[in-house]
Amino acid sequence: MRISILDQSPISSNQSAQDALYESMNLAQAGEKFGYTRYWIAEHHDLPGLACPAPEIMLGFIGAHTSKIRIGSGATLLPHYKPYKVAETFNLLATLFPNRIDIGIGRAPGGSAEATNALSDNFLQQVYKMPDLLDDLLHFLHHDFPENHEFAKVTASPVPPVPPETWLLGTSRKSAALAAKNGLAYAFGQFMSEENGAEIIQQYMDAFESKKTGQLPQALLTVSTVCAETSEKAEEVALSWLIWQLQAEKGKRQLVPSIEEAKKYELTDQEKEKLHILKQNMIIGNPQEVGAALHRLRTKYETEELMILTITHSPQERINSYRLIAEEVL
Question: Name one Pfam family in it (predicted).
């Protein structure tokens, strides 16, 4: 089994945004040391508690402080941008860090309606054009527009020795179908979906077309996980993330609370029910429990790679969670 890291660069209640971003770099270094396959960092806009609006900038920083782990965006939100600029940016990263760069593509806004309007024009129209945007991006990355195309003579410089590996990220059948049609690797975000991910990944595998990229189908599953030395400690550490999620759903997203702050949060009956649902979509436990759960997911989804999202108040507890998981399953 391969395991990888998804990082949202969370800001804890005792941190600045700078602290959180440096902890993201520390996490990537730790992941490399522990044997994780890849490290992806997400894109969010004007969301309290999340520090990274520009994965492409963080990847330059992280790439300079690591040497072999694959690094990428999870995701670059393509409807906000021109495909040519995205191709230039990731070709530059792939030139600096050969055969290490992934470009994960998503279609979500990544923030509020107001932030979306400030960032780009006609976002919804661009979402509808996502298949065309993705097609242009792939042509720019592989420099293979048809001769009569308006961009046939345009190069997304610099051209790296190995192109970035392109992934499509999603939580629906539509995203799976788009990835399959374009011959792309597919990452299913189980941590933020109530859909039947196993069926969606199977749909992707069955519909995969290799003619555009020549690649074989490749899928990974992203799951929210907290691991500690004991089950009781893991439950305690996970409470920060759970309460933070409840606050976000009420439109009151704050910085990630400490365990003590989370314990003081007074839950309504409705929130207690929601907390139970959130926990059912997570893996929380000691190394043996988490390892067994990850192996069950691998079997159920028939995928060789699992990507783990872990948010804790303490950066040390986050790194410790990833360490314990790696020691158990690798």
Answer: Bac_luciferase
